[in-house]
Amino acid sequence: MTFIAEIAPYAKRVQEESNILASLLISQAILESAWGKSKLAQEGKNLFGIKGSYNGQSVEMPTWEVVKGKKVEILAAFRKYPSWYESFQDLANLFLKGVSWDRHKYKLIIGESNYRTAANAVQSAGYATDPDYAQKLITIIESHNLTQYDLAIFPSKVQTPGSQSQKYYKVVQAIPGYFTADNAKSRTSQRTVIKEGTYIIFNESQGMINITATKGVPGSWINPNHHASVDNKAIYHLVAAGETLSELAVKYGTSIQAISALNTLKNVNTIYIGQKLRIK
């Protein structure tokens, strides 16, 4: 198993919990732990060099500190984690909570769906002193296709006036919408394509979510395990003489509305011979 394959599930889990891109977290882990080969990573599952102890567990490592104006090497205690997950979780907590003197220090990273913007936000917030830190993260992400681990959906809770906490979902890349929770779970009978935006959670069932743009009105069911990488499997069709959208919808197991939304068709009754339509 490669290092990326080993740590990716933990990064994805932390993204679900914190709204921080998995690709960003994985790239930081690679850069800061030398692909998990650093002594700190090997002995303490510590990917990001966070000092102190974790549940009373620590590991001592030599490090450089400035003492009375002079740079000296000392032994310092670093957190020792039971698994990679807790290491990712600690980094996410830093980004979420900031530091004592600035609780919003890393707020631009939270919920950011563009990995380039997120990487630059990490550097501009002063996380690292290396002037090339952001570019190194971007290069790692692009070289190893780490965006495949990013979730297409970012859940978040938002307080609405005069009500309890309202749950929302932010869709950061177009995803399929289905008629029922069963359809969403099996990814069959697609109803429509849900575009980028923030939607109200209307209902939840079988781990599937019904999201809507209008409060109190049911919308489409989505599969929260749908990933952005699914879009790489897009299906296209060249329209032949006599074909209609309804025929294509039946042929490919989708709907007229879904095809129309994917291709931004103004009139579902007007398609032409040779037209290239995206089906899924």
UniProtKB/TrEMBL annotation:
- Record has Hydrolase as a keyword: yes
What are this entry's molecular-function GO terms?
Answer: amidase activity
CDD domains linked: LysM
Q: Alphabetically list the UniProt keywords.
A: Antimicrobial, Bacteriolytic enzyme, Hydrolase
Q: Which InterPro entries match?
A: Glycosyl_Hydrolase_73, LysM, LysM_dom_sf, MGlyc_endo_b_GlcNAc-like_dom
The biological processes this protein is annotated with in GO are: defense response to bacterium; killing of cells of another organism
Q: Where is the signal peptide?
A: none
Q: Which SMART domains match?
A: LysM, LYZ2
Q: Write the protein's name.
A: Peptidoglycan hydrolase
Limits of the LysM domain:
235-279
Answer yes or no on keyword S-adenosyl-L-methionine. Answer: no
Q: Please name the Pfam families in this protein's record.
A: Glucosaminidase, LysM
